[in-house]
Amino acid sequence: xxxxxxxxxxxxxxxxxxxxxxxxxxxxxxxxxxxxxxxxxxxxxxxxxxxxxxxxxxxxxxxxxxxxxxxxxxxxxxxxxxxxxxxxxxxxxxxxxxxxxxxxxxxxxxxxxxxxxxxxxxxxxxxxxxxxxxxxxxxxxxxxxxxxxxxxxxxxxxxxxxxxxxxxxxxxxxxxxxxxxxxxxxxxxxxxxxxxxxxxxxxxxxxxxxxxxxxxxxxxxxxxxxxxxxxxxxxxxxxxxxxxxxxxxxxxxxxxxxxxxxxxxxxxxxxxxxxxxxxxxxxxxxxxxxxxxxxxxxxxxxxxxxxxxxxxxxxxxxxxxxx
Length: 323
Description:
The chain has 2 domains: about 1-200, Cation efflux protein transmembrane domain (Alpha-lytic protease prodomain-like), CATH 1.20.1510.10; about 205-315, Alpha-Beta Plaits, CATH 3.30.70. It has helices at about 1-25, 30-55, 70-100, 105-135, 140-165, 170-200, 205-215, 250-270, 310-315; strands at about 225-235, 235-245, 275-280. α8 (about 250-270) links the parallel β2 and β3 (about 275-280). By secondary structure, it is mainly alpha-helical. The protein is elongated and about 90 Å long. It is about 65% helix and about 10% strand. The chain has a 3-stranded mixed beta sheet, covered by helices on one side.
């Protein structure tokens, strides 16, 4: 599904770019040119995103043991950089228009054309963002945000063109373009920042909290402890590493069953493909007070309370119960 949505985004970007070029040809407005320049970024980013999302969906191979999902961060970084460059180009064109003003034409027709492209961008951008969050696809979410930002800038352009028509003050054309360019620069920076964070494996605290909270709510009595947990997402594949403490007398088969139950539980809750790597630890006597198993014959100390799993303690590489 992400591939199909991204394909539509790429096709839509070409159609809207041609429409905005037509509007600029009719009006000679630098504000409309601003919108068209940003649409060139949409076209490039749309096709880069399409290639990236196809590549990210490829299964892991011997050269890429963790899969190809990180290409999403590269794609998003390129898109953010292109957005930033478009913002700088818009500021240059706006200043040039202030210094060398050119007459404007057919602003009413330009408003209708540009306004229609804005509505299409907003509608499809919203859909792409919803699907991107639902399927945890950074490419779709970035593309959706880009389309939404494009739509907001388009609505501002329609407002600016309307003011120019009403007031006949031509310098407003450049002023509106510069204001929109600043918004575009901020958006480009945020996309690049998020992409670099992904490339550097910066922890996604919200995702990590979601996983920990879900496991805490559904933990079993025999899952005595969980620590040294790391969660990272490459494309639509969720990788979870953790150390889990089970009763020391469990057989390998029993421990294997517990690991698969944990994995199945996460798969049911999160819509991702999943890779779980669990290192098993045998329980220690000092952890008896944390063990909620009601019929443990090897207990050496009375049960007090389970150690609540939360972000503040699960990510540490240390067994709980010593303190």
